[in-house]
């Protein structure tokens, strides 16, 4: 397969990239890692007039720590996976990156590119949503921040307006003691996931998760649950979160939370499975991931 003809531009600055986007008036595409864009070009699913390569723009691959961790849009997925900052402050992202494609894919693919592509089955947009993250975009009208909950609008569609460029990704550092869980089901390792779940359980400020009534299981100050592959965008499982915060984490409560999550999902059936099949996968994966995250012997990945 051959891609269509296009003009190629290697932008040297963010401003130059934005100027080029304006010049082509919606008929140009940003080239970051190219792991999704190039196959779409080869299959003639896209026929842009131009590609704007942002790989040479200085500073777009930086990772900075702090209460709010920032990753440049051109941060390679493998670089993020190996980053000490990500390992310490964003363990959920680090765990999710292990599930992204294969090593060559992660060595070229970028954090910002995956988010801007907005594939509803992708791991990185899911973690952004589960982490209450945000992105910074820059365009002709200036710079603005978009919360993850407002970013993903529908299949492969974000709330960026024509001419805007995603430049940075922000995720709050996870508090010490946060327990994380991540799991997905795919036909083969490295394939696009059919359903994925992400779990982050944060203890109270004193580090305690215990309750006077031990039968209710450990309780947490914050519960973050999200899933992908069960709708046109990543889904935050708010009803299941509220249930666990109120009722604790004993086995019956985990099962009830998984049922609530499945009920809230709105999957679309396709060649990989019907809508009912995806709901069932969500219920099974979430309950299983919650159990492995909550049990006392679970490994704490945040310190």
Question: Can you offer a commentary on this structure?
Answer:
The protein is of the alpha+beta class. The chain has three domains: 7-53, 2-Layer Sandwich (Uridine Diphospho-n-acetylenolpyruvylglucosamine Reductase, domain 2), CATH 3.30.43; 63-172, Uridine Diphospho-n-acetylenolpyruvylglucosamine Reductase, domain 3 (2-Layer Sandwich); 179-294, 2-Layer Sandwich (Enolase-like, domain 1), CATH 3.30.390. 35% of the residues lie in helices and 22% in strands. It contains twelve helices and 14 strands. The protein has helices spanning 14-24, 37-42, 77-82, 84-89, 91-97, 103-108, 111-117, 123-130, 148-151, 238-247, 251-264, 275-294, and strands at residues 7-10, 28-31, 50-53, 63-64, 68-72, 134-139, 142-147, 152-154, 157-158, 165-172, 179-185, 195-202, 222-228, 235-236. A five-stranded antiparallel beta sheet has the order 4-5-10-6-7, with helices on both faces. A four-stranded antiparallel beta sheet has the order 11-12-13-14, with helices on both faces. A three-stranded parallel beta sheet has the order 1-3-2, covered by helices on one side. Strand 13 (222-228) and strand 14 form a beta hairpin. Helix 5 packs antiparallel against helix 8 (123-130). The longest helix is centred in the C-terminal third of the chain and has 20 residues, at 275-294. The N and C termini lie far apart (48 Å). Residues 298-303 have low confidence and may be disordered.
């Amino acid at each position: 397969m051959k891609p269509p003809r296009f003009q190629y531009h290697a932008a040297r600055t963010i401003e130059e990239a934005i100027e080029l986007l304006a010049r082509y008036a919606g008929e140009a595409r940003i080239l970051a890692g190219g792991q999704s864009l190039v196959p779409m070009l080869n299959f003639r699913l896209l026929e842009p007039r131009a590609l704007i390569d942002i790989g040479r723009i200085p500073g777009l691959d930086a990772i900075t720590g702090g209460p709010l961790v920032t990753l440049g849009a051109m941060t390679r997925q493998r670089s993020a996976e190996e980053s000490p900052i990500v390992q310490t402050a964003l363990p959920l992202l680090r765990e999710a990156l292990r599930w992204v494609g294969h090593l060559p894919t992660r060595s070229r693919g970028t954090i910002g590119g995956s988010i801007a592509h907005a594939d509803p089955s992708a791991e990185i947009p899911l973690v952004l949503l589960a982490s209450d993250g945000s992105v910074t975009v820059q365009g002709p009208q200036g710079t603005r921040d978009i919360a993850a909950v407002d970013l993903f609008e529908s299949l492969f569609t974000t709330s960026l307006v024509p001419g805007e460029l995603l430049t940075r990704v922000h995720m709050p550092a996870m508090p010490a003691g946060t327990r994380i869980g991540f799991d997905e089901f795919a036909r083969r390792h490295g394939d696009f996931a059919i359903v994925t779940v992400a779990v982050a359980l944060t203890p109270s400020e004193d580090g305690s998760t215990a309750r006077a009534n031990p039968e209710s299981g450990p309780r947490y100050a914050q519960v973050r649950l999200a899933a992908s592959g069960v709708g046109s965008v990543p889904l935050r499982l708010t009803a299941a979160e509220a249930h666990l915060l109120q009722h604790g984490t004993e086995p019956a409560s985990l099962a009830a939370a998984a049922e609530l999550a499945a009920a809230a999902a709105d999957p679309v059936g396709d060649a990989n499975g019907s809508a009912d099949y995806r709901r069932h996968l969500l219920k099974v994966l979430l309950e299983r991931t919650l159990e492995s995250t909550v049990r006392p012997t679970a490994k704490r990945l945040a310190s």
